[in-house]
Amino acid sequence: MNRTRHLRVDRISCTGQGLCAELLPELIDLDEWGYPVLKDRTVPGHLRAHARRAVAACPRLALRTDRDRP
Amino acid sequence: MTTLALTGSPLWYASRAGGTLALVLLTATVVLGIASGGRAAPRRTGRFGIGLLHRDLSLLTLVFLVVHVVTAVLDPFARLGWAVSVVPFGASYRPLWLGLGTAALDLLLAVLLTSALRLRLGVRRWKAVHRLAYAAWPLALFHGVGSGTDTRLPLQLWLYAGCLAAVVAAVWWRLAKAGPGRVAARLLAATAATAVPVVLGAFLAAGPLQPGWAQSAAAAALPLGGGR
Fold this sequence. Notes:
The complex is a heterodimer.
Chain A: E1 5-9, H1 19-23, E2 28-30, E3 36-38, E4 42-43, H2 48-57, E5 63-66
Antiparallel strand pairs in A: 1-4, 1-5, 2-3
Chain B: H1 10-37, H2 47-74, H3 95-116, H4 118-121, H5 123-130, H6 132-147, H7 154-177, H8 183-206, H9 213-219
Domain Ferric oxidoreductase (chain B): 19-140
Keywords (chain B): Membrane, Transmembrane, Transmembrane helix
Subcellular location (chain B): Membrane
């Protein structure tokens, strides 16, 4: 039930729109070209809803959360 | 403002109002989608806010579309039947012009369904269906102009002109901000943004603004035999 989730960025799909960093600045930074840099791949429990929102907001569907794999 | 004698049932008025509102909301959704899909980022607001607004406006569009369709079907004058709401070009009342609206609704339903499932479908398939919205908007516009009872009202004509101007401006703005590459897509967008106003203007002058349009609209059917 309560397994940890991990963020994953599909670098090929990502076009650097930057919505994910707007919605999840705790875990995602942007590099100087606007592409995401993950500060921490593990999503803590209190940020899970925010992570889900960031995943849903990505216009390229390039941000995903994996359930199990570290 | 033109004053109208109140003829017809309240359902008929609700249907016209719902359809007009749905067109305005669809226009706003399309404009936001076109303007925010490119590379230019808004300065004062977050991009995610634009995305959420795009989604919420699209859902509101569907709400008013449901009102538009349900009241039109329930209205005793046109006697449409429920099949008309999903099967295009089969209506007994203005089959061609009503069918354009039905086709637009079907496209928007496909867009809704794939957007709800987009995380499962993957970006390529989702995007391919999502582009159908670009076809749905002109279909909805011509449906309104061709079958609309209110097309001759000056206010309604200004409204159509405003919707058209907004979308055309959004397309040109995005093209102006677009980078190199995807020449074919940009040419197609520029052609469509030029062709739709021209065709609409010519169509308005030839059809709905001429006397006797109600009769010819009722008769117009596809050659493949819609209507009865």
